[in-house]
Q: What sequence folds into this?
């Protein structure tokens, strides 16, 4: 969210400088060249290769639509596409549902600035652990002999261990929700923190209850935060493959997993098709989210 | 807001939320002290021991559980992180410096740079592997993987520096120039000390992001493993508490980095204050 604001500022703020205009070009050139060569070119290459001819172990630059046809007629690939969309939607909703109340508390109810900072820092600290370690940490939690089953059985809530907790779609969703919900909490808490509390006080003085205030004031004003959080979460979840590899026991295949296995068996053209499909999906999701809220206006 | 019932409820929920965030990591840390080699990655703790930490460093008698290949991987990961840190910080500072004046196409360039942190590693990684394949270049951690790490961390450095330059008073530099100091010397003596906290933050971002990065490395680094790749290799097999012990150690390393950063930051702030006092006197 801050980057939008920064972009706005850099474009509108006239900065006094006494250097020749050529200087800016020289300063900019290394970064632009780097990004063009190592970001734009690889992405274009991916689109190009998706139309190449795939033989058993290699690819040839003869253009064909065959890989695309294979992708859209194969149950495996279409299934992966559907799984990706489903898991993305569930995780997105889960991060909002799990993260919003925490953000509400931190952003609006905690008046003490120091406590607010401490709580936000507490949310960020887990990111100082390796991402893969955080994913792996769910295995001893969710397993048949895992911590959660042990606690449930000791409390007498269940007699037998719940096996569906690990190596299932549920474990992937739990893991992703925990890892990504902080990206939802941050932007929402930021937007809630900017709400002028006198508006809420005025509504209270006029006799509005909490739910009414929440529905008509708090929720609409926090929407840009939800959208920014949704963009972060969506881009990360759609590009995922490690969590499903670690926690699903190969039962959940996302588009990312398809790309990894196709590259592993040297099916470059198929991998490229899956990559292009994923890129288009991601672009569509981000564009749709940006339509909901005009970020430039709101931030 | 005086809805104190709601406030208590939300407070309790936030406490639960923190348990959700930290629970798995705490369990992982506890289980890393499981006895070995017969103790598995689950409760109960048969006996508290540091067996798996010793196992990690090859200090235990050989057992059926293969040690993690971390020695070489650690050197590679640190080397890669340092290279990435230096290059992306330099690129970030120069690009942000260029953004201090208005120029045509600044919007396009801004989004081009920021795209680097948005595009998932699996996509750029695949693209890079395809480019390397087509050109017949071998993939290595210090070549193809390195350039992708910079693509990822350079935007972070750029945004940090942009924020710093936005609060920057250009009259300091102008004073220096009008006294006839060369631009290069002005940058070294005036600009750089002022932006140093930002540079430090950019370096911290770049180093830790690269040290932890794995999806880009997976596709672009060829056969040699970095640390995250070594961990990823354990995903498909049975997990033993040695991975947990490694997780604890790498977390402590990250905290040490954060501590160093905080200390350097404090020193820089203190020095700035001292200079300010001297100027007043």
A:
């Amino acid at each position: 969210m801050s980057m939008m604001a920064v972009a706005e500022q850099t474009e509108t703020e006239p900065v006094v400088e006494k250097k020749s205009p050529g200087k800016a070009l020289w300063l900019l050139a290394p970064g632009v060249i780097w990004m063009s060569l190592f970001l734009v070119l690889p992405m274009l290459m991916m689109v190009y290769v998706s139309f190449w001819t795939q033989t058993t172990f290699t690819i040839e630059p003869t253009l064909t639509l065959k890989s695309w046809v294979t992708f859209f007629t194969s149950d495996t690939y279409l299934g992966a596409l559907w799984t990706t969309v489903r898991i993305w939607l569930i995780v997105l909703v889960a991060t909002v549902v799990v993260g919003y109340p925490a953000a509400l508390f931190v952003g609006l109810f905690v008046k003490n600035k120091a406590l607010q900072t401490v709580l936000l820092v507490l949310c960020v600290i887990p990111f100082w652990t390796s991402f893969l370690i955080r994913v792996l940490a769910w295995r001893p939690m969710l397993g048949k002999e895992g911590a959660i089953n042990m606690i449930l059985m000791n409390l007498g809530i269940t007699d037998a261990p719940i096996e569906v907790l690990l190596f299932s779609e549920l474990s992937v969703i739990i893991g992703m929700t925990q890892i990504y919900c902080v990206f939802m909490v941050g932007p929402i808490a930021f937007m809630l923190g900017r709400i002028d509390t006198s508006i809420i006080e005025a509504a209270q003085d006029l006799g509005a209850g909490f739910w009414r205030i929440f529905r008509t004031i708090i929720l609409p004003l926090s929407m840009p935060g939800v959208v920014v959080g949704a963009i972060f979460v969506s881009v990360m979840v759609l590009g995922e493959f490690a969590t499903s590899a670690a926690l699903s026991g190969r039962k959940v295949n996302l588009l990312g997993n398809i790309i990894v296995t196709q590259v592993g068996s040297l099916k470059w053209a198929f991998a490229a098709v899956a990559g292009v499909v994923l890129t288009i999906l991601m672009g569509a999701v981000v564009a749709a989210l940006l339509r909901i809220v005009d970020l430039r206006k709101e931030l | 807001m005086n809805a104190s019932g709601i406030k208590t409820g939300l407070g309790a929920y936030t406490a639960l939320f923190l348990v959700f965030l930290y629970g798995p990591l705490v369990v992982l840390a506890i289980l890393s002290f499981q006895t070995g080699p017969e103790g598995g990655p689950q409760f109960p703790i048969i006996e508290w021991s540091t067996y798996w930490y010793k196992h990690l460093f090859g200090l235990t008698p050989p057992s059926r559980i293969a040690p993690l290949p971390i020695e070489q991987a650690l050197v590679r990961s640190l080397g890669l992180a340092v290279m990435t840190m230096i290059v992306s910080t330099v690129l970030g500072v120069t690009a942000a410096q260029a953004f201090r004046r208005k120029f045509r196409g600044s919007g396009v360039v801004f989004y081009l740079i920021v795209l680097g942190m948005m595009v998932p590693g699996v996509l750029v990684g695949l693209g890079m592997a395809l480019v390397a394949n087509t050109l017949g270049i071998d993939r290595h951690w210090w070549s193809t993987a390195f350039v992708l790490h910079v693509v990822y961390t350079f935007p972070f450095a750029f945004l940090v520096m942009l924020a710093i330059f936005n609060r920057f008073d250009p009259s300091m530099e102008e004073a220096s120039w009008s006294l006839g100091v060369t631009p290069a010397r002005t940058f070294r003596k005036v600009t750089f000390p002022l932006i140093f906290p930002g540079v430090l933050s950019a370096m911290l971002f770049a180093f830790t992001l690269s040290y932890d990065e794995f999806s880009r490395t997976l596709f672009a680094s060829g056969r040699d493993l970095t640390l995250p790749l070594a961990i990823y290799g354990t995903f498909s097999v049975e997990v033993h508490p040695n991975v947990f012990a490694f997780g604890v150690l790498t977390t402590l390393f990250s905290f040490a980095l954060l501590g160093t950063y905080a200390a350097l930051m404090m020193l820089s702030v203190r020095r700035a204050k001292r200079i300010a006092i001297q100027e007043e006197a």
Q: What stands out?
A: Residues 1-19 of chain A have pLDDT under 50 and may be disordered.
